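Researcher: I'm preparing a figure for a lab meeting and need a structural model of a single chain. I don't have an experimental structure, so a prediction will have to do for now. The sequence is pasted below. Please return the structure as tokens so I can convert it later.
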Amino acid sequence: MRTYRLPGPGSLDDITLGTEDVPTPGPHQLLVETRAASINRRDLLITTGRYPLPARPGIVPLSDGAGEVVAVGEAVSRFAVGDRITASYWPRWISGPLRPEVVDQLGCTVDGWLSEYTLIDEAAAVAVPEHLSWAEAAALPCAGVSAWNALTRPGTLTAGQTVLVLGTGDVSLFAAQLAKAMGCRVIATTSSAAKAERLRELGVDEVVDYAATPEWSKEVRALTGGAGADLVVETQGPTTFGQSLRAGATYAQVCLLWVVSPQPEVLTVTEDDLSGSLATVRREFVGNRVELEALCRAVAAHRIRPVVDRVFGLDDAVAAYRSYRDEESFGKVVIESMSQLRSPARLEC
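Model: Understood. Here is the structure written out token by token.
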């Protein structure tokens, strides 16, 4: 099989394609023929060594992917050959709070999806909604779960409330789609007329041009009759954090979803940002398998289709990274992989 590996922090040129034997699944493992994998911002940070969790040398990159089960270990009970699955970003975090002993991440400390075949522990696997293409299914584990948890924590949101999403990154698009499915009003920011039109096509109610209106928080308040947004999905920080507070309602929730900026920045909050605000600020760091399963149920029930912007072949994986880094996207950048071998897992394993 063809497999990419990252020897260690450096540049995108260090991601190398090689040939390896197709692995045999262990007792509780699934051998999955990878059909698609998608790139997240954390994957760029891993290549440069700026991600908070150090990557294992020689790791197979990418946390997000989807594929068909082609072989199962002798003790597997949750899935069978032929099932369509994705996997949790944190493969050992099944439910409950994040604990130190389950901090492994696909594509960072555990081999990820940038390979023709991927070994997934059955405990990490989640069935893919039937209406999704492979590229769409590969978009769910990181950005989708992050948006889901931003919206669904207990006491966070109810139908009829207003959600503010910043920009058109992957998490923001998921949050907009999910919030509309939950019956909320959605306001989004962008500086692009073309992207504003696409946001409206997704169902976004109001779009604020932050280039034309640098104090976009005032426009959000105007659009809400002075009340402000009930939930701000803050994906842009640290520079936008003050305005996110000012755009929020008195008792708003502000959910911080950025991990680290391309260059170190200082988070500054002024008295003006806090005046009149009793907002609750919280963090999310993707989520567990149970939360991915809940997202998949919602996606299936509402026939939500994740937004895919560009698709590359496996041979062009490094070009896909560069495209994600250098070109403005509206939706996911996906690498599709069809194995040159056919169904090796239907052999006895």
